[in-house]
Amino acid sequence: ATSSFDAGDAVLAHFGNRTFFPDLTDIVVTGHSGGGQYTLRYALSGRAFDSLPAGINIRFAPMNPGSYQYVSTLRKTSTSVTTFETPTSCASYDAWPYGLNSPVRYGQATTVDQKRTRFQNLTVRYLLGTADNDPNGALVPHDCGAEAQGAHRLERGVTFYNHLWQYYSGSIPNMSVGYVTGVGHDGYQ
Q1: Bridge partners of 59?
Q2: How far apart are CA 127 and CA 186, in angstroms?
Q3: I need a labelling partner for 65 at 20 to 30 A (CA). Which of 79, 145, 147, 156 fits?
């Protein structure tokens, strides 16, 4: 079976072909909402960007995803977006798509440690709408794996970035978060 990540690899391999695109210097993988989830999970598991020719920079920009794929087993506490613990009330909180355990077929090609190491050095710009804070908003996942990340998209994004900052001890030089003031769950804004 072919996955959407196989398709992503094929697209990157095509654009990375110097015969067709000799002057290409930058590729941005981006998506909003479900596309933001794809962007983040592809950044963690994708393989084609490791073999892009020298001189092509790849960046990722997930925007307002409904959930994140964490690099460790820790999730936010019930009262803080900066304090983390291992959840005890959700058995599936760290399985795909919320964590690195039990990956889909495509994700089995690399180990958890390989994913963590490579991800730390990628260029990722998270974009979050400051008004994307409705816990009952459009397509906000409500299973326990998603709820362990926060009540709504904005909180989940803030928490995930804080998680990365703590997990990598602040050594995420190419990652940042941008807040789009007053914007809710709207990919056009």
Answers
A1: 28, 123
A2: 12
A3: 79
How is residue 36 written in tokens? 């933001």
Q: What is the mean pLDDT of the chain?
A: 94
β-pairing, 75-77 with 123-129? unpaired
**Strand-strand pairing, 80-85 and 75-77:** antiparallel
Amino acid at 26: D
Contacts of residue 22, defined as CB under 8 A and 6 or more positions apart, other chains included, come to none
Could you give the angle at the alpha carbon of 54 between the alpha carbons of 53 and 60, nearest 5°? 80
Q: Report the DSSP pairing between strands 75-77 and 57-63.
A: unpaired
CB 5 within 8 A of CB 97: no
Residue type, 63: M
**CB 96 within 8 Å of CB 103:** yes
The model's confidence at residue 35, banded by pLDDT at 50, 70 and 90, is very high
* DSSP state at residue 3: -
DSSP secondary-structure letter at 105?
A: G
Quickly tell me which residue has 């180990």 as its tokens. 111
57 contacts 146 by C-beta, under 8 angstroms: no
Q: Is the pTM of this model over 0.85?
A: yes
- Find out whether 101 and 154 touch, Cβ atoms under 8 Å: no
CB burial of residue 1 (10 Å; 0-12, 13-18, 19+):
exposed
Q: What is the mean pLDDT of residues 107-115?
A: 92
